[in-house]
Design a protein that fits this description.
This protein is an alpha/beta fold and 254 residues long. The chain is 41% helix and 24% strand. The strands form 2 sheets. Strands 6-7-8-3-9-10 form a 6-stranded mixed sheet, with helices on both faces. Helix 3 packs across helix 4, helix 4 packs across helix 5 and helix 6 packs parallel to helix 7.
Length: 254
């Protein structure tokens, strides 16, 4: 579980995030949604320590990350897996070396142990027998799956995904969504996903937090979002043709 309490972030005297409080639940896909510039990416970066917060607290299972020193934060970061928007694979490393990179950096495992763990994770994302390929030889969906394998290679307690479907076609995006959801439940991870993709919200949004102009505008489930009375949320949600279609079908069955 991750709990954010009264978080404030200021850039150049302007409050980009104001009094954000939210709990991200263990074993669930927790989605942060909002328009570009709403503050959702800043919120994620504050949670993982890429931005220092100006006020408030961020608790990882009762441990206040904000108050920790460098070495204490390092221990928390070893429990975190990150899936970056552009996959962030090292072009000069092959698939096997990319996935193994965190193990080389943060563990004392033997080479045999690291290879075994790497292959286990690659099989989990349905990428067996691609170990020696380089990122330039992979499709966009394959790159995302390699990045997921790398994100889970250290058995993280927390998984952060920044726009995981960026640049993917709808079919591949749905595959990535399903994979993230499956891994979340299989390993009982606290997963936090930053997205503006309503397809993802309706497919895997077990908990959804809407950020509007630096404030928490709404939170609930994907089932509740269609009946929310927040005007800003509705403007965001029903800009999606998928959400409009689902709303129409829901109304027709009532």
């Amino acid at each position: 579980m991750i709990k954010v309490e009264n978080l404030v972030k200021i850039f150049n005297g302007i409050k980009v995030l104001e009094d954000i409080s939210v709990t991200f639940e263990k074993g669930k896909t927790n989605l942060i949604i909002g328009r570009s510039g709403s503050g959702k990416t800043v919120l994620m970066k504050c949670i993982v320590g890429l931005h220092e917060v100006d006020e408030g607290a961020v608790y990882f299972n009762e441990r206040n990350f904000v108050k920790m020193n460098f070495s204490e934060r390092k221990e928390i970061r070893r429990e975190i897996g990150m899936l970056f928007q552009g996959s962030a694979l090292f072009d000069s490393l092959n698939v096997e070396e990319n996935v193994m990179f965190p193990l080389n950096m943060f563990t004392r495992m033997t080479l045999e142990e690291k290879l075994e763990r790497t292959n286990t994770c690659l099989r989990r994302v349905n990428l067996a027998d691609v170990n020696k390929l380089y990122p330039g030889e992979l499709s966009g969906g394959m790159k995302k799956r390699v990045a997921i394998a790398r994100a889970i290679v250290e058995n993280p307690k927390y998984l952060f995904c920044d726009e995981p479907n960026s640049g993917l076609d709808l079919k591949t995006a749905l595959i990535i969504d399903d994979l993230i959801s499956e891994i979340t439940h299989e390993y009982n991870i606290t997963t936090v996903i930053n997205t503006h993709d309503m397809n993802s919200v309706m497919e895997i949004g077990e908990k959804v937090v809407f950020i509007h102009e630096g404030r928490k505008g709404w939170e609930g489930t994907r089932e509740e979002i269609l009946d929310a009375e927040d005007e800003n949320l509705n403007d965001f949600v029903f800009a999606s043709n998928l959400a409009k279609k689902i709303k129409s079908l829901t109304s027709g069955n009532s």
